[in-house]
Amino acid sequence: MSIADNLNKIKTILPEQVTLVAVSKTKPNSDILEAYNAGQRVFGENKVQDLGKKYEELPKDIEWHFIGHLQSNKVKYIAPFVSLLHGVDSLKLLKTIDKEGKKNNRVIKCLLQFHIAEESTKFGFNLQEIEELLQSYPIHGFENIEVCGVMGMATYTDDEDQVAKEFSSLKTIFKQLKKSHFNGQSSFKEISMGMSGDYPIAINNGSTMVRVGSSIFGARNYH
User: If you classify domain 3-217 with CATH, what class do you get?
Assistant: First the structure.
């Protein structure tokens, strides 16, 4: 099946309110253009250098999401154009994004990343950390950041009950934060969870944004 066929197949089962982020990391521009020509406009990259290059070379109406672990010293390279940063996992990073947003005279949209998996390799806050952070640093004090929601990755396992439980915990975190810190902020609405292997479970548990790569583009290209 072609990339366009894969995309259309996924879009027919995605609820209307769920945004599909086509994870184009490691993929050539030709693959991205095939998806673009099939109507896809939101793409996700996890390396700053690759993202910068693709932004320069590809159509300007593409909405680029950065979905990887972002280092503070790299923010400046993508701050002028990135649409959404999925994995914001520290106060240091928030401060840097705010500073770079100011330099570029724009408000940068972010998701707070939470550690919901049992694997220790995943990055992210826990709820207690974020509550403490938001009490000492009200998020509304950052003028060049808009926190639009939360993001998390489930454990890489075949145990669907465990995956569902982890996704459900992220939905609970989202609801709690909405109530305590983002009440009345209509832009705080995204729950980014679910990838090629588990996005149907994520959607059942309240995901509003899924990050799908191999189900669209086929297996990953390793350089």
Answer: alpha beta
The first and second tokens of residue 11, run together, are 């879009």
Percent of the chain whose pLDDT exceeds 90: 83
Q: Given the structure tokens 């998996």, which residue do they identify?
A: 117
Residues with Cβ within 8 Å of 151's Cβ and at least 6 positions away in sequence, in order, are 86, 87, 111, 112, 113, 114, 190, 191, 192, 193
Q: Taking residues 90-108, what's their average pLDDT? A: 96
131's CB contacts (< 8 A; 6+ apart) are 180
Q: What is the mean pLDDT of residues 19-39?
A: 97
Please state, in angstroms and rounded to a whole number, the distance separating the CA atoms of residues 156 and 170: 16
Sequence spans of domains, the chain: 3-217
Number of H helices, E strands in the chain: 9, 8
